[in-house]
Design goal:
The complex is a heterodimer of chains A (227) and B (120).
Chain A lengths: L1 H11 L3 H9 L9 H29 L8 H4 L2 E3 L2 E3 L2 H25 L3 H32 L13 H33 L2 H4 L2 H26 L1
Antiparallel strand pairs in A: 1-2
Helix pairs in contact in A: 3-7, 3-9, 5-6, 5-9, 6-7, 7-9
Chain B lengths: L9 H20 L7 H22 L7 H8 L3 H12 L1 H11 L6 H12 L2
Helix pairs in contact in B: 1-2
Classes of the chains: A mainly alpha (227), B mainly alpha (120).
């Protein structure tokens, strides 16, 4: 009987229409808003991109034929004449963790439909993100102008250091910058009351993205800066 | 469609926030240790703890349904294969680089290069 039903449907439709019919039947796998499922799938693909970068970095560093520059010295800062290793990167890490906390709170107040606090916390999160990008710009400027590090070589050792550094942190910084814009737009829409009827899921979806950016930094910090 | 939003007490977020700060401070602290296997173990430990809490609590994966959890956390497992292969092949890559790209050890390549330049 089922066979008959299928052939009856086939008789009426042909080619691409059958594909549409099969995929659009009333089925649902993920019991979350579709935007949230889409964000998860986007983040999954992003995971693959970042892992490919970090794996490439691992391979060039494992096989380096000249000494690898010591990141703890390269990224050290002089504070009142005392050199503190990795100071700027440490501050950037704490800045991102702080923004991760304000983001979690924003999502939480979004669940409670607390418009004012949600918007304020989203703006704070975007602000910490902008601060992160600012510090990264400072770090890049210092590396390029003072240390002479270029994507194709540097005076400290393995030339792949510059290539992988600019590639990995650049791609992460791009994500943070996009996140700042994204969060600002969501915050303005929250403030305007756009989600009063629609629901505050968008705040949670933006939160997924922001926490992912934070998660990627955890791996970059461990493998690029500390290792 | 049961797509009700999640709601959790604020307490757990403050607790996880504080934990992430502690782990961040601890992993920053590993930079003061000498470079050895112990340091690398600590780096990995704090990294996994931080990543685990972010995935479980911050993005609320712990409260999602299994269909979503496995769809998101399953595919990255194949990345471990890639990482493993590249780690195992690292010495081969190094040999190739020593053979073909090391300035002191690649006279054949250099001579060919100079010959080409002389022809200009």
């Amino acid at each position: 009987m089922a066979q008959e039903a299928v052939s009856a449907a086939d008789a009426q439709q042909a080619g691409w229409e059958t594909i549409v019919t099969d995929w659009s039947s009333d089925k649902q796998t993920f019991r979350v808003p579709w935007g949230k499922a889409m964000m998860w799938i986007f983040l999954l693909s992003d995971t693959f991109i970042f892992t490919c970068f970090l794996t490439g970095y691992m391979n060039v560093r494992l096989s380096t034929t000249v000494p690898w520059p010591n990141p703890s010295e390269v990224f050290g800062l002089d504070v009142f004449g005392v050199s503190v290793p990795l100071l700027l990167i440490g501050i950037m890490t704490f800045d991102l963790i702080t923004s991760s906390g304000t983001m979690a709170l924003a999502v939480n107040f979004g669940d409670r439909r607390d418009r004012g606090r949600t918007a304020a916390l989203l703006f704070m999160t975007a602000g910490f993100g902008a601060l992160f990008v600012g510090m990264q710009a400072f770090e890049w400027t210092k590396l390029i102008t003072q240390e002479g590090i270029r994507p194709w070589g540097n005076p400290l050792g393995a030339s792949q250091f510059g290539a992988t550094f600019f590639m990995i942190t650049g791609f992460h910084g791009l994500h943070v910058s996009a996140g700042v814009v994204y969060l600002s737009i969501v915050a303005m829409k929250v403030l305007r009351g756009d989600y009063e009827k629609k629901g505050y899921e968008i705040v949670e979806i933006a939160g997924l993205y922001w926490h992912f950016v934070d998660l990627v930094w955890v791996f970059i910090f461990a493998f690029f800066y500390l290792w | 469609m049961a797509a009700e939003g999640q709601q959790h007490p604020l307490k757990i977020y403050f607790y996880i926030w504080a934990l992430l700060f502690v782990f961040s401070a601890a992993s920053y602290g590993t930079d003061f240790l000498p470079h050895n296997a112990f340091r690398q173990g600590l780096i990995l430990l704090f990294m996994i703890l931080k990543a685990g809490f972010i995935v479980a609590i911050s993005v609320r994966m712990a409260w999602e349904r299994k269909a979503l959890i496995w769809a998101i956390l399953g595919p990255p497992v194949v990345l471990l294969v890639l990482i493993g292969l590249m780690a195992v092949e690292g010495d081969y890559t190094e040999l190739s680089r020593l053979n073909f790209f090391s300035p002191s050890l690649a006279p054949a390549g250099h001579e060919a290069g100079h010959g080409a330049e002389a022809a200009h």
